[in-house]
Amino acid sequence: MKNFDLVVIGDLNAELVLTGDVVPQFGQVEKLVDDATLTMGSSAGIFACAAARLGLRVAMVGKVGPDDFGRFVLNYLQGRAVDTRGVVVDERVKTGLGVILSRGNDRAILTYLGSIAQLRYQDINLSLLDQARHLHLGSYFLLDALRPDTPQLFEQARVQGLTVSLDTNYDPAERWNGSLAETLAQTDIFLPNTTELFAITGQTELEPALAQLAGQIPLVAVKLGEAGAVAQRGADIFRADPPLINVVDTTGAGDSFDAGFLYGYLAGWDLAKALRLGCVCGSLSTRAAGGTAAQPSLAEALALM
After folding, report:
1. Vertex 284: Cα angle to 282 and 286 (nearest 5)
2. CA 109, CA 52: separation in Å to the nearest integer?
3. What is the pLDDT of residues 214-263, one digit of tens each?
4. Which pLDDT score is estimated for 207?
């Protein structure tokens, strides 16, 4: 019996979510927003909270600074029953911060990397891998210090018997490379959205792009936003539609999808059902500002399914 279902590795930052149908304008022009929320940010952090909310036993690995935002992140994760003993507090760095301007189905994002880019392979307590069933890594392109070593990390995890999933998120540099090919070769489950899928494959149509990656990776699940999700394993393709939800903020919806999908995967569900749970979890998370406030429990998600 393992101590954890998941070890989550990746970005950690606080996030300020501003909600309103406005466009910022330089020249000291003041615009009013409808609401402001300080909450848990980061793809990996939001995913960890979503997975724990579903009842999975989650350990988090990341880096924060010795500041107010770092303490906020640690307290938030602990309040969501996420084990934070793998989180490094580095006296030399400042905790990352995201600022999001959200207007329903779209958002603009500003990110200060800070501690996010400073997480290193040497910071990871590899003994956590012995205690877990699965490793998930988020925000690959923000992890500047760790990124060159992700193939080694994934290979080590698989040697120790874990399955491995990856959500790269967007590449701010728009290069879409680094050690990605080597990392994908050690990945069991890849979880891009369509923008990331097309940028990584160089394709412009969904089916050939999905088929290209499914020829290299055992399981690929693509988030399609309002159109739901599609997954491919070998030659088998699965689709799921999202439920109708009154959307407040889409921040972190993809991370909540990942958590729902991986819950089903780790529970041994068939992929159609796992994909449906992912869509339900991602959709329900959009009911409130920020990525974590409206994340569903397993009972709530199953009821909607």
Report:
1. 80
2. 25
3. 999 999 999 999 999 999 999 999 999 999 999 888 889 999 999 999 99
4. 96
Dig out the tokens for 140 from the structure.
């690959």
Q: Which residue has the tokens 């974590």?
A: 292
Distance CA 70, CA 60 (A): 14
Determine the Cα–Cα distance for residues 188 and 191; give it in Å rounded to an integer: 10
Rounded Cα distance between 137 and 11, Å, is: 9
The contacts of residue 24 (CB under 8 Å, 6+ apart) are: 31, 101, 108
CB 289 within 8 A of CB 35: yes
Residue 180: strand, helix, or coil:
helix
Q: Rounded to an integer, what distance in angstroms lies between the CA atom of residue 54 and that of residue 177?
A: 33
Q: Nearest to residue 7, comparing CAs of 224, 158, 183, 192?
A: 158
The verdict on residue 22 lying in a domain is no
Q: Is 123 exposed, middle or buried (0-12, 13-18, 19+ CB in 10 A)?
A: middle
Query: Could you tell me which residues are beta bridge partners of residue 219?
Result: 189
Interval 289-298: pLDDT, tens? 889 999 999 9
Residue 28 lies in a domain: no
Query: What CATH number does residue 186 fall under?
Result: 3.40.1190.20
Its domain, for residue 174, covers 4-11+42-92+117-304
Q: Rounded to 10 degrees, what is the CA torsion of 62, 180, 285, 131? A: -50
Tokens 């097309």 -> residue: 198
Three-class HEC string of 188-228 = CEECCEHHHHHHHHCCCCHHHHHHHHHCCCCEEEEECHHHC
How many other C-beta atoms are found inside a 10 Å radius of the C-beta of residue 232?
21
Number of domains in the chain: 1
